[in-house]
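Fold it.
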Amino acid sequence: MDTAGLLLDAYGRIQEIVHHAVGNLNAEQLAYRPDPDANSIAWLVWHLTRVQDDHVADVAGTEQIWTSGGFHNRFGLPFAVSDTGYGHRSGEVAAVQVDGRDLLGYHDAVHDHSRAFVSKLTDAELDRIVDERWDPPVSLGVRLVSVISDNLQHAGQAAYVRGMNQRL
């Protein structure tokens, strides 16, 4: 397996977990929070998708699907269009009230964009520095793996919250 194939597999696993966590839930179930300060499935999946969209669009040099696909208007969230959810507090988490079809539609569109970008990568391109604000500077390969790590953690959290909700 080549590097692009490995990355494609990893991004595909994120999508599988997201579909499992969100599938067939209504807006109330997606907004369920185990306690008042916990993250909901809706917020977790919205956030992980925003992070993937933001980071992959940045390294690909493209517009984010959030804006190009009109999802920021469709979701109607009370956040700046550039907001990815980083640092959100309880009230902001509670504001993410979305329909499962819209949430999966956005995630799938971002997944397709990420897949198209990653599928064309060569091993040599992974060494390209994409962020010099860090020491050491961040390469494309490190950024893509960082997104995978963050997304898998949040997708797993969403699946866990779904399980908690279903036990009620």
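The longest helix spans residues 140-166.
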